Amino acid sequence: MTEQDVSPQSDFIREIIDNDLKARKHDAVATRFPPEPNGYLHIGHAKSVCLNFGIAAQYKGTCNLRMDDTDPAGESLEFVESIQNDIRWLGFDWQGRLFFASDYFEALYQFAVTLIRRGKAYVCDLNADEIRAYRGTLTEPGKNSPYRDRSVEENLDLFARMRAGEFEDGSRVVRAKIDMASPNVTMRDPVIYRIKRSGHYRIGDKWVIYPMYDFAHCLSDSIEKITHSICTLEFENNRPLYDWFVNELIEGPKPRQIEFARLNITYTVLSKRRLIELVEGRLVSGWDDPRMPTVAGMRRRGYTPRAIREFCSRIGVAKKDNLVDIALLEHCVREDLNETAPRAMAVLKPLKIIIDNYPEGQVEEMECPNHPQKPEMGTRSVPFSRVLYIENDDFMENPPKKYKRLGPGREVRLRNSYVIRFVSLVRDEATGEVSELHCTYDPETKNAPPSDGRKVEGVIHWVSAAHAIPATVRLYDRLFRVPDPAGAEGEFTSLLNPGSLETATAYVEPGLAAARPESRFQFERIGYFCVEMRDSLPERPVFNRIVSLRDSWAKMAPGTAGKQGVRS
Ligand code: ATP
Ligand code: MG
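^ thats the input. predicted complex w/ magnesium ion below
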């Protein structure tokens, strides 16, 4: 990690940690990031990664990576691997502390046995519907299960036989014996073990009983000696239960659960269930589709880890749910790329121009700076010749006065080369559209202003028609048409943006044929592009548009873009 990433931040979680350290509750801070390996990480997870690993770095503590794999449905090794790749790519390191909740199954079983021995848990034969009916409601207390007073011996025997596979799936569960009248429904004898024969991606059929999240999570935290267990707000009601298990079963220092608000972002969805639906319904090309809010998708699109970390730091941690404008994320990406991305020239909608007074067959190598403000980024040479392509939009036959580009009677500078003057145009006979322009160049103006002091209209980009290489550009836009697709009425998939991917052919300067996959460029005056990591070939490069140049965040919040993070 860079210095900047561990620079001290402050928020309510860090205040809690500061106080705990002052009170000498712990010697060192230990956090963990506990994904369930049933999908790829998304930007919401990235926020949690930055928070947990960031706190560990700031307090010179540790952060474990724990696969929370207690529910075999949907879990797989592919996800375990993608999670590790994504965290590493984001710039964080668990320093060898990779753990699996499934490795704690024996210990968790023994914890449940301890509860049973102490009369604090029992085997219950009610089925799921009955358990629900007995649980009561927010306004009515629940009723005790008829199996609540089984003897310790009977409970131990039944639990051992559950483990041994003697009973059908769903026929019995183990429940903690807490309080069926508790105002907190979570405390009404919660289920801690269930029977489920589905095979685990990692440990196969070794177990037919699986611990429930509330039981497994706090005890996994305890086994790993986590000090601060940071999770999202929906677990606030579960905190008393977290503390109950820990107080019943753990001696010495206990982990403490702290909740913060989940990240939500406009124009996308961040629930795994919905992301799985997009992938399985083939509404996107996969988890790493560049339109997906996944870390893998953002990486493939061309977002940088630094921009994502910066975004997570700017939004901060809150105690209330909010919806963050995706324009802020895009702004962070632009801000980083503006500093780091070398410039290049590419023409998206070509218009051919012929420079009548430029010698036929002559080729000049134009030396172009890779970054206008950063000479240390060096230069590259780009071939210039008699026939060029410019952007179709950079010529107008009847331009308005303010138009800063080429038109009849006008002169413009070609970026990093000469000033050219319009002479005449040729039309396509069939369509009547302008098909090519004839111009002249002023040989005195190579990277120098006209000597007579005359003014040119503007600067436009170009490529040499004979040297440019055709490239596929994938013009990505937001995945959804509406700001809050998850909160809208009806099927969220009906709100997908049909224009979220358009493909076009661009003509790019020839040096880009050698660009490495994943390298990023600013195509001058167009936007930021990244060499597609899977599909790009040297003979046919493919570029993903990362973001356009227009910054709607900076425009909406002039002067405050750096400070104000969140809009709800
Ligand atoms: P989902 O609820 O979308 O199915 P999840 O949140 O349960 O997914 P996990 O794999 O359990 O997914 O999440 C791992 C960690 O990431 C948890 O600590 C969770 O709190 C955190 N996390 C998940 N989504 C977000 C989010 N949108 N914002 C912040 N943290 C998140
Ligand atoms: Mg979860």
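The chain has four domains: 12-100+214-330, 106-211, 352-461, 469-548.
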